[in-house]
Amino acid sequence: MSEQNIPYKIYLHEHEMPKQWYNMRADMKHKPAPLLNPGTLKPMTEEELSGVFCTELAKQELDDSTPYIDIPEEILKFYKMYRPSPLVRAYCLEEKLQTPAKIYYKFEGNNTSGSHKLNSAIAQAYYAKQQGLKGVTTETGAGQWGTALSMACSYFDLDCRVYMVKVSYEQKPFRREVMRTYGASVTPSPSETTEVGRRILAEHPGTTGSLGCAISEAVEAAVGTEGYRYVLGSVLNQVLLHQSVIGLETKAAMDKYEITPDIIIGCAGGGSNLGGLISPFMGEKLRGERDYRFIAVEPASCPSFTRGKFAYDFCDTGKVCPLAKMYTLGSGFIPSANHAGGLRYHGMSSVLSQLYADGMMEARAVEQTAVFDAAEQFARVEGILPAPESSHAIRAAIDEALKCRETGEEKTILFGLTGTGYFDMVAYEKYHNGEMADYIPTDEELKPGFASLPGIE
Amino acid sequence: MSEQNIPYKIYLHEHEMPKQWYNMRADMKHKPAPLLNPGTLKPMTEEELSGVFCTELAKQELDDSTPYIDIPEEILKFYKMYRPSPLVRAYCLEEKLQTPAKIYYKFEGNNTSGSHKLNSAIAQAYYAKQQGLKGVTTETGAGQWGTALSMACSYFDLDCRVYMVKVSYEQKPFRREVMRTYGASVTPSPSETTEVGRRILAEHPGTTGSLGCAISEAVEAAVGTEGYRYVLGSVLNQVLLHQSVIGLETKAAMDKYEITPDIIIGCAGGGSNLGGLISPFMGEKLRGERDYRFIAVEPASCPSFTRGKFAYDFCDTGKVCPLAKMYTLGSGFIPSANHAGGLRYHGMSSVLSQLYADGMMEARAVEQTAVFDAAEQFARVEGILPAPESSHAIRAAIDEALKCRETGEEKTILFGLTGTGYFDMVAYEKYHNGEMADYIPTDEELKPGFASLPGIE
């Protein structure tokens, strides 16, 4: 298609929007390793998983053979409230960089949760409601997931209990108020409300909490309360399944205008956005239909892919959750307090870990001042104030575009702009004031984390 | 058109977007009264205005006869970065209210400034750049306008100096950091950097500032600096002209799907959003082609339309600006500290004031807890966290929809959702904690404001 006919921002029509999620696992030759029961070390059964997750979600977690799964009508209806998200050609950024590369981004920040997290939150709330549950529990770090879940629960009139990492609870009171606006209860973690919280507080009295610790509390609260289940915003197979809507929309829009990306870039914490964005493209690669370069971008201060081990590990600090085989820094790993954004999880999606181990995708770690440089550069020309997490992908996209300037190649670069940074202005302020520093852990500093690995292959 | 074929969210195609602004004044039989020179009390000439404003903007300010004005190509290009904004059918709100009314809203919050203010900011920055200026000065209260202007100036590489009402500067540090991200300098007002600021500080040492005072400082800073002009985000005729893009897009989308609104509702502070939204509809009413009900909604604590006087008044506290004939509470009016959101300006657009005086539109005042009730109700079902200002319009739209429930009328209600409330969570927190109170000034309390009127008819 002639370039003049391609809109600046591509919005799919309602009838062009995906009606099914795509399950990447169905096309993987090497399936991701199963979750293990932490007691027996045997693969978790659907029945066991159903004690923690909603039954339908437990099924989705285990299903590695069905390629397409219908999106229920009520979820499609909710998606229409904020989807399709726009696929945008970054003309102004290209001009600023003087690059022959074509840069596109899929922007998932145009909803009140401020990120892509809502795509899975609404699905998980829906299945909880279907099952007749009273409510759900979860953890949140930076707060996007908690906000998304509170919005979804409010829509289905479900109770929502959020354990928020204490340092975020204190530093991001506005996120907490957004969750309260949607009727959620928010507890700083670790707390006295759970056994595991009390234990962690006794062992580390001054602790400001971690995501792994908040997960332990949320799981305990769900398992111990009648009519409640636990939900999680990343890492899990079911989450990548729901997030495939990002990639499916992107691919439909690109196919419509005959655009083919050469490089697809996403930031990676637990993998929900990256896994969702790449899904249908990776499907083509897995089936041998077409090749793409995929790049996962992670913080140098929390480098699961680039410096982690591919091994079974606990998903949480309290070791109450199943074990997952993944690239991990060890469940005992604690990211530096210096690190400003999200992407702090010690592990990584099992699906993405397997794909990385199989050489299907690349990964790179970037430092945070370079990330904020990219964020500010992007904001000034493209008008959107990006979240620090999303800015990892911007950094890599700019770097690839600059390489094209050197080589003269007209590559098409696609990246995921997962969200907005309105609640991250404290980090931006540090950056503006020159108070932001980089931190790359030494091998020595990574050792305690690895020591917490259970040693199961 | 059959209702099934109307999308849930209507996005115009690029080729359907307005290429011209609409100048409502051209169709008004009673033109708005001219600005007066505060020294001579004679109408401001283009030459006089050009000392304060960019020359092209001074022309637009005075032009009350050209109905359509071409939007320059570069502004159209910038508009494409965040426009068209969606026109959304509030199905979920209708269902919640059990109303036969059809509710639509035009959502202007999907850009980093978080509001409609960007529509005029980019136009004003463009004309400043065209004129070869170095930079512009302005004031900001809640911060939307300052953010919008800093984004626009960053795009055109203009210096941007913002005087921010001191209380907002202190309570909204995040807004300040967003402006800094876009390279603006932000000074709390009143400040020691201007003569008028020093005078006000000497007279009222503990003052937390006001919009009228920040305007005085910004004007002085512009007039006293080579290569600078002053720009304003509301009230002025030129601003309503630029904001007509909101109404033109809305009308194009409604016409495309054969939807006709019966009632059109907007919040009113200085009138920029309301004036922009109603423009093409009011044009039809002025030309006798079609009738609509228009409702301006203002805070009960700052009731310019409903309790103000229609008279000439100063636009600023320092009395350095021209006089405008408008509904006003007097330039000495200071809104209660209790009042949480924006919409704090003592006056009102001259265009809207004339239309109101001529009986072409209605106005009503609402109390703030009722406004936050509406905001939370809307957020929970429609997914968007609205700004307190925008929520005034939501309140009135809900009230009109509830009347339809009583009467059974299937009216079509359109309202302007001007922006998001991410930077207003302190106010939401007060509301959640039951610490928010209502305040309606007594007639006695309004007296000192009226006493500051210059007494010119």
Summary?
The structure is a homodimer of 457-residue chains. Chain A has 457 residues and is of the alpha/beta class.
Question: What does it look like?
Answer:
Two copies of one chain form a homodimer. Chain A is α/β, with parallel strands linked by helices. Chain A contains 18 helices and 15 strands. In chain A, β12 (about 310-315) and β13 form a beta hairpin. In chain A, α4 crosses α15 (about 370-380), α9 (about 195-205) runs antiparallel to α10 and α15 crosses α16. Chain A is globular and about 60 Å long. The N and C termini of chain A lie far apart (about 50 Å).
Structural descriptors:
homodimer; about 450 residues; alpha/beta; seven-stranded mixed β-sheet; four-stranded parallel β-sheet; 18 helices; 15 strands; globular
Secondary-structure-derived class of chain A: alpha/beta
Number of strands of chain A: 15
| Shape type of chain A | globular
Distance between the termini of chain A: 50 Å
- The residue ranges of chain A in which pLDDT falls below 50 over 5 or more consecutive positions are none
Task: Give the strand line-up of the largest sheet of chain A.
Answer: 1-4-5-15-10-11-14
Main pleated-sheet profile of chain A = 7 strands, mixed
